[in-house]
Structures
1.
Amino acid sequence: MSLEEIRSKLIDLYLCVKVRKSDEIKNITSEYIQNERNSLKKIPLIDIINYIQNSIEILVEMRAIEKYEEKLEKDEEKNNYINKEDPNDANGLKLYEGMLINAEKRIRNHIRVSIYKYNKYIYI
């Protein structure tokens, strides 16, 4: 497998796992994907790998938060939920807060990488 084939496969993988806004998803066309693919061809492979890694980390964090929120809803239905107003229930709140902080870090890093992709330098 040549380097260009590897690059092409990594670009395809990134485009599959890239975190997008819901309105952006609705407007995706094959032309939009092709333009994005062409712009990614100009980027070093290591950066594309970092994009993939960041996108997957964001998706994992989002899923973890989603599962935690589902657990809270189930516990609430059983009248045994974590009450965020209760200062005695700091463990659940700290866990949730930590998950949100990690997700925010991943999203900020993803934004940084996306901005770098378009050769703009912004520090968040």
Note: Residues 45-77 form the longest helix (33 residues).
2.
Amino acid sequence: MKRLKSTLFWLLFALPTAAVAQESLRDRPYIGSIDLGISGVGASFGNSIRWTGVRLNLRDRYVEDVNGVNLTLWKPIRNPDLEVNGIAAGLFYPEAARINGVAIGAGGVVAHESLRGISVGGLGVVSEGAITGISVSGVGLVAQGDLTGINVAGVATIAQGDMTGLNVAGVATVAQGGLEGINIAGVATVAQGGLKGINVAGVATVAQGDMTGLNIAGMGTVAQGDMTGLNIAGIGTVAQGSMTGLNIAGIGTVAQGDLKGINAAGIGVVAQGDLTGINVSGIGAVAQGVVRGISIGGIGVVGQNGITGIAVGGAGVVADKAPIRGVAASLGRVESREALHGIMVGGVRVKAPETRGFTISPAMLRTGELHGVSIAAFNDIRGAQHGLSIGIYNSTRDLNGVQIGLLNHAANARFKWLPILNANFR
């Protein structure tokens, strides 16, 4: 009887295990499982190498292929070739080369090549390759390749490749490639490539490439390339390239290239190229190129290569290498080293080598040549006057028009000094 029981035990348990061992021990150092199924399909308990169905093991080691449900109770040892298609779950963490489907681990989820599907890790979800799908982690999501889909982490979402989709992290969202989609982080959203989509960070949004879309940061929005879209920052919005769209900053909006759109800042709006659109600043709107559009600066509006449109500056509206064209007004001075064309209003002084249009200053106009009308306490026209000057004292070397003032001087007129009215036409 004892002999019969021993034989039955051997047939039911020892032989299946021995068969599996003979099949795989040639290339794997550890095998041992109790399998309830046929041809690798069914339920397996132990370290079966290949299985389809439901598989439960204490610690996976050198497993190759599981299709179905793979549950690991403890930390895996080493599985460089394992591919799980279905559900991979672990009380510690599931580990495989590739996981396609659902991966859940109390500690985390680890893949050596790729993760595709839904991945949930208590501490971390990590892949040495790409992560694609819906990934959630209490601490961090890390992909050495691309990170694509809906990615949520308590601390950080990080990709050494591109990051695409909805990316949310309590502290930082970082991609060494491009970052595209809806990217939200409590502290910083950073891309070494381009940043596209809706990008929001409590402190800073930074791209070493271009930044495109809705970019909002509590302190700074910075792009080493171009910045396009709606760009808002509590302190500064900065682009080393051009900036286009609605650009707003509590302190400064700065572009090393052109700045186009609606540009506003508490202190300064600055472009090393042209400044085009509606430009509003508490202190100054400044361009090393041309200022075009409606520009308002609490202290000044400055365009080194000219100003075109409507410019209002508290202390001054100034152009260096080109004319001011349009309407310019300041409580201080309106000046150009080239010319003034249009309506110019300067509280202290209006000054240019040539003035064409209508000029008003409670104090002084100083110009080399006047074409049009000037109203100022002192009209100092050092060349030719073609038109009308009205003031307390009007002076010109070459009058071709009319002077109205308490005292009028025209060096070329028959009567060089006259009160009230002087006229000369040639």
Note: DSSP finds one helix and 39 strands in the chain.
3.
Amino acid sequence: MKTVDDPLAHKMTLTKNIAMIAVAAITGFSPMAVMLVQNHLERQELASGEINKTVLLNHSLFTHADTWLQLVIPQLNVTVTAKKFLTIKFAAFQNSLLELVKATDFNELSDSEMHALLSHNLSETVTDYIADAKREGISSAFINDFNKWHQRVVDILVRAIENNVTSIVHTSQNGKMYAILTAYDAALGATIDDVEKTLKAVGLKGMGYP
């Protein structure tokens, strides 16, 4: 049976631990509690060295989706506009990536095919969530100001996709996708910080936006 090499296993464990601490800090749950919920369905597959579709679908990006949308975002000390924007953005990426994982056998893709697929998905999702936000009454001024803060995160995500797809560290395309989902998870978390920066730039709690 194929096993996960030690550097990959260590890298995945470290990345997940950092993500767990971040989620714990936001939600108020202990890191251990987050760990138990997040990894319960993943451990056996990861221990066996196999990252299959089940492991991908149980990534924290998906298993914590309701926590972000129903618990974390509603309790943030930001404007109603900001909460609506965050809800739209989080839901768009989580749903888009979930459908992509469900529909795709990544292990059947070449590196170039995988990169093209993920790049298209990212571009399409960004276009869709911005359009949805505008339809829901989010002003162009808010979106444009947010994008100025958030562009560095998008650039990091684009590089993470490219670097993981071409990496020789991962033992399978599914392994690459798992790492990319972790990068998306971190990018969504950074969205909250960038929304707060956007609001502070125009005054306390963003009173400059409708």
Note: The longest helix spans residues 173-200.
